[in-house]
Structure formats: C-alpha cells, structure tokens
Amino acid sequence: MYGWRGTILRVDLSNEEIIKQPLNESVARDFIGGRGFNSKTLFEEVKPGIDPLSLDNVLCLAPGPLSGTTLGMTSRLEVSTLSPYTGILGDGNVGSSFAAFLKRAGYDQIIITGKANSPKYLWIEDENVELLDASNLWGKTTWETTDILKKRYGEDISVACIGQAGENLVRFASTIVDEHSSAARGSGAVWGSKNIKAIAVRGTGNVELADPKEFKKLAKEDWEFFLKDHLQHKVIAKYGTHIGMMSWWPGYKYFEKYLAADEIPEDLTPEAWKKYEIGRSGCHNCPVKCKNVFKIPKGKYAGEVGGALEYECIACMGVNCGIEDPITIMEMENLSDKYGMCVIPLGNAIAFAKELYNQGIITKEDTGGLSLDWEDIDSQIELIHQTALREGFGNLIAEGMYSLAKIIGKNAMDYCYHVKGFSRGPHPPGLFALSHAVSTRGADHLRGRSWAYGENDPEVFPILIKTGVLPAQISTDPVEGITISERATTLTDSIGRCKGAVNSWVCAVPLVWKYPLFDGLARILNAATGYEFDEAMLEKVADRIYAIERALNIRQGMSRKDDRFPQKPELKVTPNGEKELKEHEKMLTEYYKVHGYDLETGIPTRERLEQLDLKYIADELETNGPYPDWDGPPLWSLDKYPHGGKRA
Questions:
Q1: Is 0.90 topped by the overall pTM?
Q2: What does DSSP assign to residue 634?
C-alpha cells in the first residue's frame, strides 16, 4: 500500500499475544486513518454499557496516512477509547514524534485489548514488537518513565506513557507523549486499568508514496506558505497559544465572568511570559514551532524546565481558579505533565470545587481541612498532588466535574457547567453553544466552533471566502458553517494533520489557501496513496466518521436531551432562560435536518446511514435500541481505586 503501511498491530494483554493484521484497503479508503480508524474500531469492538475501566474497553492509537511523510504538521496521533471521564467517545489528539515514528515502523494503528496480569510496556522497533515487564516503571512519573526508556533504547525513540494519575485511575488522566504532549479525555486511566505503562517506538522505514514527485511538490508549497504567512510565522511561532489570553476571553473564578483583553493580569499577557522562556519547540516536521520551553526562576521547583505551557493551562488552572501568579502556573503545568493529567478538566474541576466551597455547598469538613479560597496557591498545589495520588479530597476531584457533582449532591449539579459530562463554561445560544452541544466527545473547541467563522484566521479567512476557496455559507449560515467545519476537523484528525496552535484553516486543511475546500487535500492524498479522492468523496468520509461517532454515543445513552448547552442556575427559571433554550432547540432542529438525524431523538436515520454505507450500524441501533439514558460513567466506591505513590 502507498501512504498507509498496511498493518494493524493488535495487542491482547490478557493473553500476552501480539498479532499483525493486514489493513483492509476498503477500510483505509472509507475511513482514511487516525480518528476514522479508531472510531470505527470502538463502535465495532466496544459493547454498549460497559464500564470504561473494565478489561472490556479497547484502547486505540493511530497516525494518519500523511504521518511520517515530508508534509509538515502531520505528526498527530489519535488516542481513542470509551472515556472513563464522560462514559462516551473519548479521543485525544496529540503531537510530538510518536505518530511519525509509528508509521515509519510500519503500523497504521495499534489496538490494545484485555488486561495484563502485571505492569507491562510495549517496545516497537520496526518489525520487532515485544511486550515487556514494566514493574520498575510503575509508580514513576511520565518524565522519569520517558528518561528511563530513552536511556535504555536511545534518544531516537518516541514514548507514550502514563504517570501516577493513570495508574490510580484518575478519570481525566492523559496519555503523555515525550513528556509534554497530552492526549485528553481520560485515556490515561484506561492504560492504568489495563496495566500498561508505556509504548516506546523507533521507526527506521519509509512511507512509500504513489507519486513521490507530485507529493514532494505539493508538500513544498504547503511548507513554504507557513514561512510567509504573517499569523503563523510572525505571531504563532513567537507566542503560540498565549495570544489567546488577549482574544479568547478566559473564564474568571469559575466563570463568574469572562475576561476581556484589558482585564488580563499584566503578568499573564503573551509578552510577559517571554521572561521565563528559554527556547521554542514544535512537533516532528513542523514549520511553525508553536510551543514554548520555559524555566522556573524561583520557589520549590527553581531551575526546573518545562514545555508546551498552553493557553488552556493559564485559563483553566490559572485565572478560572483565581490564580494569577505565573510561577505557580508553570509549576502546575509541570506537575500535570509529570503525573499525566489534562489541565482542562483538572483546572475546571478545581474551579468547580472552589465555587461550591465559596457558595457554602461544601466546607472544610468535606475537603479534609483543605482551604479552597480562590487565591490560596498552596492549597491548590496540594490538591493537584492529592488528585493524582487519589488522596484526601483529591480522590473526589479525580472523578471529574460531573461525577463530583453527583457524589456531593445537594444542588451541586446546578453549578456543573458541562456538555456530555465534559467541562465548559456557560454561554448564550448561538454558533458557539451549538457546536459544543453537538460535539461527539463533549464540549469541544476543536470539533467546529472557531472554524465556522474564521475566528483565528482574521487575515486569511475573508480572502478564502472572497476567492471561493471556502463556501460563502460557512459564515452566513450557522448550521452549514458548523457542518463544513466538522468535516474539516474530522478529516484533519484522520490524516494525521495538526489544526495549528490557534485552530487555523490553513493549518488544518493542506493547501486550502490555494485550492477549493478539500481539493488540495484530495490532491495530496492521491499523490500519497494512489487513490482518486475528490472533494465529494472526502466530505462523505468525514460524514461517515461523524455518524459512526454519533452512533457510538447513542449506544451509550445519548439523545437529543444531551445536545445541551450550559446555563447558569439563575437563568434556568427565568423567561430569558426559557427564551435561550427555545433558540437553542430551534438551531438544534435545523442541525438535525442537515445531518439526517431523527428530529425527536437525535439518532441518525436509516436513510442517512445507508447513504454513508453504514447499513450495519442502522441495523444494530434498530435491533438493540433504545438504550438506557446516559448519566455519566459508572461510579465506583471511592475506596476501590488504587491510590498513593511518590509525589512529583
């Protein structure tokens, strides 16, 4: 095969068996790779209603057909599972080098099933694949694990692993790649539940291309664009996502309000972070290098170096928790990376707990004496340790916001701002709220929102519309705009391409600045694979993947009632709140019409599924539905979790 390497790697942990399975060519053509491969696998191999932390869950890792090639920004790995955090589709997209190295080793996907009897890690070096003892790695941070494996096998490897948070089944634990890149949605806890600590890979092969000359030409054009584009080359390469502090309105003290640019603390502005920066870094084969490398100047962790401190950490762990000290934020970023936790659900769960504390819904008696005052830095650092090790009140934070609200009871759920169990601040109805409400993995800024009106392409986006590269309705019709944006992001996650530090059309869709939407992508996919893709085929692929994800969530109990958007408690009982709900429901109905979903239930219709060549999914939903209503993942008794370990 061209583009693809032609092999799926299956790892049965229960039987310690490794199987190399040929990649079906029709599957490759119909689902592309990455997110497409993984979502299809989860629907077909994960039974509805299982506990995500049981051995019945499946863990998938997949690059795309363009990963490991010379096309820039293509070292993105999709890590997918049934999320123990939300109980629905849980996929995270992560950069660094793993995707490229896995492709060069010869594999298009890793599928991990069962549970090992003792800690294991997977070593992949081209055709050689071994499942090895990880007893000496268990209990170590992600940084320590990565260092040990690189010392063992050499610096020219990439390591995906978990820290103590994954081992202790913290429900939003991440898969950490090469120390600083995080795949969210709780996959780390699934690694821990299966007793797998790490995967290390070295790949020395090449990805064969159907038309190397044409591919090289297109890849060169794409690369050169980023060396000239003002936003990417002169702004993002300098500041990365820090520029979001001045334009993305971060929440303040659990969404008490959203901060405008002139309200951002001076020490947290993009230029202020430069005083701690000692370099820039980026993923494998990236022309932009959007990530910072920083050094902590003082305090307990003085001299410690970290990297990839993103807007989300500053916003979620910082100002939304009432913390405005940059040194503390750097410390929290490093602790999250070492323990292996996603900063978004961690920060929002802490902010949620602080809100409940300051509302009087919980007290120091509930927190074990820990202060949850907004500006209490020491207590927040302590709570991060407690969460990763499931100690004290951290054992509850480790359940995530939605489950935490269920456990606390009282009226805590009124303050739990979420979409499908994933944390997100309250917003009025509109494109922003709708795109989050219908996302297939819960509230999400990477499934459609900013794409629909070029929020982060202020210079290029209008030109793309004016020249006809992007269809005009993308910015004039909210539902059409979201639909087109969903297709773009779905394809991006499937080909192994980055969406860019600030979610940019020109990063996500190769050559979109030159050819009509998806035409440039079709050209470069054809040169890579030898197939004859076109815009219509790629749109169908994207819709097929999105539909299979929707169907997976339907089996987990999702329905129209879950395509909601968060409202503050006071709005739920007011005429204005009722008006907002009616506006949202009207837009949701229009969205269902465009997507071919049943207007009452939100289930994809048989007609639509058969149009997408998914008849077997329609048969299953009709035969086995309706399913029990979703109410988050199954809860465990808090004393059943593994807990403890060495503090980072």
A1: yes
A2: P
